[in-house]
Amino acid sequence: MNKSFIGYAGLFCLAFLSVFFFSVVGALGQEKPAVPRFERSECAVQPPEGIKAECGNLFVRENRRKKSGRTIRLPVIIIKSTSVNPAPDPVFYTAGGPGAGSLGRARGANHLAAFTKDRDFILFEQRGTGYAEPVLQCPEVDLANQESARQNLSAEDALRREARAAKTCRDRLAAGGIDLSAYDSAASAADMEDLRRTLGIKRWNLYGISYSTRLMLNYIREYPQSVRSVILDSVLPTSVNWDETGVDGVVNALNLLFADCARDKKCSAAHPDLEKKFYRLIESANEKPIVVEAVKDGKTYPVKLNGNAIFDFFYNMMERTGALDRIPAMIDAQSGGDYSSLKSYAEDKVSGRGFIWGMRYSVWCREEMPFQDQKKIAAQAEKYPFIRGFKIQGAFPEICRAWDVPPAPKIENRPVKSDVPALIFAGKYDPDTPPAWGRLVASWFSHSFFYEVEGTSHGVLFSRRCAVEEITASFLDDPVRKPDDACISEIPPLDFK
Hints:
Elements: H1 3-29, E1 37-40, E2 53-61, E3 71-79, E4 91-94, H2 113-116, E5 121-124, H3 139-150, H4 155-175, H5 185-198, E6 204-210, H6 211-222, E7 227-235, H7 242-263, H8 265-270, H9 274-287, E8 290-296, E9 299-305, H10 307-318, H11 327-335, H12 343-351, H13 357-367, H14 374-380, H15 396-403, E10 422-427, H16 435-444, E11 448-453, H17 460-463, H18 465-477
Parallel strand pairs: 4-5, 4-6, 6-7, 7-10, 10-11
Antiparallel strand pairs: 1-2, 2-3, 3-5, 8-9
Helix pairs in contact: 3-4, 3-12, 4-15, 5-6, 7-14, 9-10, 9-11, 13-15
């Protein structure tokens, strides 16, 4: 008997009856439907043909610290297991950011076979993100950054413009009745628990990436009895102050790649003195910015890229596993005057990103920035002479003052210790969440398995099938037993181009 089907089908029937009941009560007594509740709906994102899915919306209170008030809607997609008798403990996934949408992953559901062969795979849109209602979008910020790039403003002027745009966005959202203090990891963790309960799931397996690893740690701290196991990919520890070390992370990852190229006979022969060449390129661009023509809506903009912009370009490349092996060749090409690799970067600058900035600001300004040392953050911009002035999230101190949300409780900046079985991955070259952070979090769990993956950057499970199809699948079968990890040693070092 398919217990999962009975549970979900029963749930959807109950959801329908609940809606019917409350609509009648509402007509008679003007009472609102209770929350939390789950209602079946069309899928916000359609999975590929042949993939079975059930979809709906979780309705919860916006501000959980109040007994009444605004209700928000959080979409859910359940990718059904291909098993005729799936395990009762599905995998729960939500994306990182904070501010990244989760439901887009449904479009690639064909790649979830390692998860869905025995279990359902639940995609959850966090409060404030893309398909949720409300969505904390800040088009003002995207437009400000686009205009700064088109006008070739200085870094400081661009940051001031970004902060002003964030303030405009904040005022607009607040005027619309949105309580920005209600969008944080604690509230999202409570949303997750409401979803588990309304779906009738006893325990589930968590899967987080980047920021959502921090969210999973939050959930485990508050609801440990609800978790069978947890998979953490590219970990952001609760206790780490990211802005204080952000530039260090990029520099360390780049220097590691340079050192590996120097040790590789093929790479060192094709790209000799790569590290020196890179820093000469940065210095040269600071003396005379590189001009790259970017096209937006049929109009051409000459975008000036100084040394810090070139450094930022390679930071972006370091985040992508698929680009790592091409970085030495890009450095050589740019050093020789071939700037074709910069074209898409320049066009992104004048076209904008469309990120859900408001959600990022609410989370970061509430539970990250209040615990950080502003002097240490400022020191990062002066630490390395060749990129003096380069900042990670440079406008955030000013944005957080304007965003004006109260700081989270101090527990949000402390380690989370747990007996939940944990599988933890880190990419060797990850500039955002280095392997040391994965090891740190592994030490918080009494039962954990940690893997630093060769030739990989941020988001190991997005790029290494070995990690998904063998290690993760084995872990989900039995989270207490050491997973089948023979394939990890077979991942070769980077084959530099």
